[in-house]
Amino acid sequence: MEGEANQAYVTSFDEVENQPQRENRENKEQEEEDMDAFEFNLITDYQNVERAHKNLIFYLVMPFLKLAILISNHARLFKIGVMLILIAGFIIYTGFALSINLSEALIPLVLGCLTVFFICWDKFMDKYEDKIGAWYTSSTKNSPSFWRLIKIISALAVCGALLGLLVYDIFFSEDKIKEKNLIACAGILVYAFFCILLSRAPHKINFRTVLWAFGIQIVFGIFVLRTTAGFLAFDWLSNQIQKFLDYSQCGSLAVFGNSEGDISSFAFSALPTVIYFSMVIAVLYYTGIMPYFIKKISWIMETTCDVSGPEAIVCVGNIFVGQTESPLLIKPFIKNLTQSELFVVMVSGLASIAGSVFGLFVNMGIDSTALLTACVMSAPGSLAIAKMVYPEVRF
Predict the structure, then answer these.
(1) Do residues 380 and 213 lie in contact, with contact meaning Cβ atoms separated by under 8 Å?
(2) What is the rounded distance in angstroms from the CA atom of residue 259 to the CA atom of residue 266?
(3) Among residues 348, 333, 340, 313, which one has the least CA distance to residue 395?
(4) How many CB atoms lie within 10 A of CB 365?
(5) Residue 56, Cβ neighbours under 10 Å: how many?
(6) Which SS3 state, helix, strand or coil, does residue 336 take?
(7) What is the DSSP letter of 324?
(8) Alpha helices, DSSP H only, in the chain?
(9) What is the pLDDT, as a whole number, of residue 334?
(10) Which residues does the UniProt record annotate as the domain Concentrative nucleoside transporter N-terminal (predicted)?
(11) How far apart are alpha carbons 214 and 387 in whole angstroms?
(12) pLDDT per residue as tens digits for the range 201-211
């Protein structure tokens, strides 16, 4: 009896001790139920407010509520109208800018054209991206006979066109044969031979990847170095980059003063360019602009060169950032990468320079057009070399 009495005492004591917590929990649950039951939409139910509760703030907010209702009821028309107004404003602004200063107005014109292009690109890819990717990445043996024939013909046409461009550029573009270009072509073949000779698994080399990577590199080099449009485009782009980087000198002069002739002028003039350009790249990454462009370019390499997504993203990312930053683009996938993919990450990083170092080299007087061309051409070239030396052996 005494034990039962003690047990009852302990139980009653625990109940008394936990009663405030239980009451607080019950009150909180009741408040949550009351809040769930009280559903009031200010936009749709403002007309049901009693007259006694309508004060000055209510009447001040009333026009904005009616405007919100009008916009919500005609959201599609409102969106189209805003877009038309923005487009018309951009066209008028660009037209006036072109009439006043043609060279300075090319920047907004190019940005506008790029915006229109990528909007059309996104619309097109939303419908046909899966079909295009499946057609390029599928094996020729598994394709229907008609598509197999189309793929073989297109591959032969691309190889023939590249070979024809090289032959014309070396032998027929000028009165004499370009011996330096012949030496360069022979050097590429010898270098590729040694890569195959030292390859971990020569029989596993995917020559589609190698040929497409070298093909993209050759096409880009011919476009920039052998065509007037390509040279002028990259020359204009390099001039804009040079002008953009010159703004860091204004900041350096404002902070350090005129350091010309000082033995430490490199630290006061060149290193601020690194900080300035690194900050710009970081802002572009944070706002999502840089990953957007990297994703578009990497899709082309992933589809044509038959490589994995992380490999393509790292190769393209190394055009803009350095070896230490580019692996961060694929941070969630690094632990699952194969040895071949890790080798691609390292080779592509060593084959390029960071954007901040690019700005530093330009500030030191190196031709920005040559640097920009080399940075872009190194992406497919490093991919080809890496896939020859260490091909994918795990499928």
Answers:
(1) yes
(2) 9
(3) 340
(4) 7
(5) 7
(6) helix
(7) T
(8) 2-37, 56-73, 75-100, 102-137, 145-167, 179-197, 207-226, 228-256, 265, 271-287, 289-305, 309-320, 339-350, 355-363, 368-389
(9) 82
(10) 186-258
(11) 12
(12) 888 888 888 88
Is residue 242 over pLDDT 60? yes
Q: Which value, in Å, is the radius of gyration of the alpha carbons in the chain?
A: 32
Per-residue pLDDT tens over the stretch 178-188: 777 788 888 88
Tokens of 54: 């309508």
Q: What is the DSSP letter of 330?
A: G
Q: Which residue has the higher pLDDT, 57 or 211?
A: 211
Residue 205, number of CB atoms within 10 A of its CB: 19
User: Among all chains, which residue has been given the structure tokens 């578009």?
Assistant: 296
The pair of three-digit structure tokens given for residue 133, joined into one six-digit string: 């990717």
Residue 54, SS3 per DSSP: coil
Q: For tokens 């097109």, what's the residue?
A: 124
Alpha carbon distances (Å) from 54 to 51, 57, 323: 5, 8, 63
Distances (CA, A) of 273 to 80, 245, 252: 42, 7, 9
Q: What is the pLDDT of residue 259?
A: 52
| Of 395, 386, 14, the residue nearest 200 (C-alpha) | 386
Instruction: Please choose, from the candidates 339, 342, 337, 350, the residue with its C-alpha nearest in 3D space to the C-alpha of residue 381.
Output: 350
